[in-house]
Write a structure and sequence with these properties.
The chain is mainly β and 731 residues long. It contains three helices and 36 strands.
Length: 731
């Protein structure tokens, strides 16, 4: 959300003294975004030399200029992220053409890159776009919300990944490179104040402890008042209560051994967002449950005004406020041992723990119709071991990866005042539905072996090839259950079952037999992903590249409220075979850089949350698969530095998505041929633009700039954000 009239306290840089004193900045624009200019604090003693305008990335698990990597990459420094107001992974779409990050009602962001995405909020669902911090995986999307702070840079790799990075994905990978412990003492503070009394504070302290040992501690806190208000009564919602932290310890006891220990985590106790009641499916019908008194109450309920902040909500989860109580922590250790001057052994070990207890209200009214409580946990262990070496013209990486996850996901429903709770309303005294919960317990084990080779045939021509074998085993337990006995009584009256209070309500294939105690299933899969490419570097330093790759995303089971076993049918693994060709060209000795790429994706068994027949409710949400589909498009990026201090950049991605083979159900339970339809959350055009001018003010820096981001498809969305910073001044 844009902040208005922020007062910002600039960084106090102890040691480097970026600012001689605390700076106060007042921004008059309601959409202004501010960030302090910050030098990189990462320590990379073996980094290749680079010009002031060159971007160094680690897409191939070694440091290279972005213009030497034959892959479509968007990279931004931590300084640029701050200047553009990028404070969470959901903001990345503002700076990465082709990327959309869709917040979901259940706190699980959904990443879609070049049209490849999976809108599924089950905690254990594998993402199409993997997120890492310093190559340590955040294996499930729900755990990524606190990744983007105290960042040196972010790298977004487009296209199937897996032969280099720890997870196998069909869409791409996002790698946050965090600021590392520094060689000298350093400390800093950023503080901003904005609309709804939002206070956003980030602080760090870094430096040596003793010979060969350095440390860095960074924390961030966000606190704000409510931003939503009820249009039917005196009530408000929307406060923020967030805390993030990261501690790193870098140990280098000898010249050939390096160890980096990382403990990080976050807490979110802010409110969830209430819905707006705009229309009602029973507004013009009294058929079925639309004839119930509950449906009549919704027809008579006032509709939300056309104001973004106006909404309504109830307290149907035992009087609890719609809010989150989520937390995440992770411990990781990376060890690098130089076996000789050419060969390095790397071990990356990580354990993470996530827990959620979140209350939501999705009906936009005070009645208890879709009042929910999401609880669950994720416990994940990962180990990667790899050898990387350079022997003359040959760069090689071989390794293995093991991952084990335990997940539990429960969704509690209070639908006691909704139309679907009372199908027997015409019978006086008939029982009706009240409270239910559905859950899934999924355990996942995966093993992988991978390798990647780059061979320089000449100083201009490089061949690239890699492969990965992955074996995944997933177990499932799940059901939709009664809570408190009321829904069980209603269920037994309708279907003649004998569901006990708290028992499972889901029918087996032998209707009307009920699962007891739950549905149990397994999904075992394996695959081989691969890539092959060629890079050609001209005498003018232009890179021409072509790449073919195939990636997989593992299958999964849903967490869903269903009456039939078919609602828990898993989706199997999907695959994308990607063809891409591109160019990266610097001009004018670094004054301008242009990159462009064209791509075609052959998409098999795309996973999608759609509609499935249900013997009780007609149709319900469920996981479906699209046998055949495709994506093609192109993208371009230009960066220009015409004069000292002035930087102009623009980028655009165009995609055309199409389902070529799929027959499925609509919301009314009717079967349709969906061939020719577009993908959801895949806008045809995403474009970004940015301009900034920097100049010196005494011993400090000032800047003024503007950013714009646009998406165009069936829905057009545009966001323009001016920004500026002047030490001690007003903009």
């Amino acid at each position: 959300m844009a902040t208005g009239n922020p007062i910002t306290v600039g960084r106090i840089a102890v040691g480097r003294m970026l600012l001689g004193a605390v700076s106060l900045t007042v921004l008059a624009s309601a959409d202004a975004a501010w960030a302090q200019d910050a030098a990189s604090t990462a320590s990379t003693p073996n980094a290749p030399s680079a010009s002031a305008n060159e971007i160094i990335v680690t897409a191939n698990k070694r440091e290279q200029s972005i213009n030497d990597v034959g892959l479509s990459i968007t990279a931004q420094s931590g300084e640029a992220l701050m200047e553009r107001g990028i404070s969470s992974p959901t903001d990345l779409g503002k700076i990465v053409p082709g990327l959309t990050v869709q917040p979901s009602p259940f706190n699980t962001p959904v990443y879609t890159l070049r049209g490849i995405g999976f809108y599924e909020t089950t905690l254990s669902a594998s993402p199409t776009v993997a997120v890492y911090t310093d190559e340590v995986a955040l294996p499930f999307s729900a755990t990524t919300r606190g990744a983007a702070f105290d960042i040196q840079r972010v790298e977004v790799l487009k296209g199937p990944q897996g032969t280099l990075f720890g997870q196998n994905t069909t869409g791409g990978a996002i790698n946050y490179v965090v600021n590392k412990p520094t060689e000298v003492f350093d400390a800093g503070l950023d503080l901003s104040y904005g609309r709804f009394n939002e206070i956003d504070t980030t602080a760090f302290i870094s430096g040596p402890i003793t010979d060969g040992v350095k440390a860095r501690l960074a924390v961030r806190g966000v606190h704000s008042d409510d931003w939503q208000y009820s249009y039917t009564r005196d009530d408000s919602l929307g406060r923020k209560r967030q805390l993030q932290g990261r501690f790193q310890l870098a140990i280098e006891p000898t010249s050939n051994f390096r160890l980096l220990l990382n403990a990080n985590g976050w807490i979110d106790k802010g409110d969830t967002q209430a819905a707006q009641l705009v229309e009602d499916t029973c507004a013009e019908s009294t058929a079925g449950t639309c004839g119930s008194p509950q449906a009549a109450a919704f027809r008579d309920y006032p509709r939300a005004p056309d104001k973004a902040r106006a909404a309504d909500w109830g307290y149907g989860i035992f009087g609890r406020r719609p809010k989150r109580d989520d937390r995440f922590w992770q411990l990781s250790a990376r060890a690098d041992l130089d076996l000789n001057e050419n060969l390095t052994l790397t071990s990356v070990t990580a354990y993470s723990d996530y827990k959620t207890d979140s209350v939501q209200d999705f009906d936009g009214a005070t009645m208890f119709s879709v009042d929910t409580n999401t609880t669950g946990f994720i416990k994940d262990f990962a180990q990667e071991l790899r050898l990387s070496g350079k022997y003359g013209a040959l760069n090689v990486i071989v390794g293995g990866n093991y991952n084990r996850s335990r997940t539990f996901d429960r969704l509690f429903y209070n639908f006691s005042e909704g139309p679907s709770a009372n199908p027997l309303y015409m019978i006086p005294g008939a029982p009706h539905g009240e409270l239910t919960f559905n859950y899934s317990r999924q355990n996942v084990k995966s093993y992988a072996a991978f390798g990647n080779v780059e061979f320089e045939l000449s100083p201009q021509l490089t061949l690239i090839g890699g492969a990965r074998y992955t074996n995944t085993k997933r177990s499932f337990e799940g059901c939709t259950n009664d809570f408190g006995g009321g829904t069980a009584t209603w269920w037994n009256a309708i279907f003649g079952t004998n569901v006990q209070p708290g028992g499972c309500l889901t029918f087996t294939p032998t209707f009307p037999v009920i699962f007891d105690p739950a549905d149990f299933d397994q999904l075992n899969e394996d695959n081989i992903s691969w890539n092959a490419g060629v890079n050609y570097k001209t005498d003018s330093d232009m890179l021409l590249y072509a790449r073919v790759s195939r990636g997989y995303k593992s299958g999964s089971f849903p967490t869903a409220s269903v009456a039939s076993y078919s609602g828990y049918t898993p989706v199997k693994q999907e695959s994308v075979t990607a063809y891409e060709a591109g160019v990266k060209a610097p001009f004018g000795n670094g004054l301008a850089e242009i990159s462009a790429a064209a791509f075609y994706y052959d998409y098999k068994d795309k996973q999608l949350r759609g509609r499935k027949p249900d013997p009780v409710f007609g149709t319900l949400d469920g996981l479906v698969q699209i046998p055949k589909s495709r994506v093609y498009g192109f993208e371009t990026q230009i960066d220009v530095r015409p004069t000292d201090g002035l930087r102009i950049s623009a980028g655009m991605t165009y995609i055309d998505t199409k389902i070529t083979e799929f027959t499925g159900y609509d919301a009314l339970g009717e079967l349709h041929d969906f061939a020719g339809q577009k993908f959801p959350y895949a806008p045809a055009i995403t474009a970004i633009g940015d301009a900034q001018y920097d100049w010196a003010v005494g011993s400090a820096n000032a800047y003024i700039g503007v950013s714009t981001a646009e998406q165009k498809s069936a829905i057009r969305r545009r966001k323009t954000r001016p920004r500026c910073y002047m030490p001690g001044g007003v903009a």
